[in-house]
Design brief:
It is built from 7 helices and 5 strands; from the N terminus they run βββαββαααααα. It has 182 residues and is α+β, with helices and mostly antiparallel strands. Helix 1 runs antiparallel to helix 3.
């Protein structure tokens, strides 16, 4: 079992290859309604709609925005695979994602756009707070999990094949069949 460890760079807590990432912003006075509209627009964007599972940054496990304190504060909480600097580079170079987040962050105090990677990192670091505790209920990276899902879907197609019964009698397949039984 992987233990939670703080990154040496100070950017969140990691469990195995995955890191938590928590940002807290102050919403500009009077911008709560327009920020809610921007978040709703994000939620309706391909890749971010519930069930789409196709975010532009493919190392993200999940991401959420939370407005709180009567819409005066905004939290962005996510977890991602790999090093923090690589995640920042992916975010900055993601094109459409960067534009979507620009529409959201423009409603927060201290945001002046993200003209370059250094500005993005400075803005993010100004809002980042490492978790006091972080745990995961599953191992693996997004890439590994998606591969496991593809392998499982392929195995289910094999099981559904009319000739599967004979092929599945081979003893080498017993561990796989044992796992498939639950």
């Amino acid at each position: 079992m992987a233990e939670a460890t703080p990154h040496t760079s100070g950017h969140g807590v990691a469990v195995g290859p995955t890191s938590e990432f928590s940002l807290f912003f102050r919403v500009k006075p009077g911008a709560g309604d327009s920020l809610r509209s921007a978040l709703d627009a994000l939620q309706q964007t391909p890749g971010y709609r519930p069930g789409d599972y196709g975010m532009a940054i493919t190392t993200i496990h999940e991401a959420r925005f939370v407005l709180f304190d009567d819409d005066t504060r905004l939290a962005f909480i996510t977890s991602f695979d790999g090093p923090w600097d690589a995640y920042m580079e992916d975010f900055f170079s993601s094109g459409p994602t960067l534009a979507l987040f620009d529409v959201i962050f423009q409603h927060t105090e201290g945001y002046e756009g993200l003209p370059d990677l250094a500005a993005e990192k400075a803005f993010i670091l100004g809002a980042q707070v490492s978790a006091a505790a972080y745990a995961r209920n599953y191992p693996g990276t997004v890439k590994e999990i998606r591969k496991a899902q593809r392998v499982n879907a392929a195995f289910q197609r094999v099981l559904d094949h009319p000739d599967a019964a004979a092929a599945l009698q081979h003893p080498a397949l017993a561990p796989l069949l044992d796992e498939a039984g639950d």
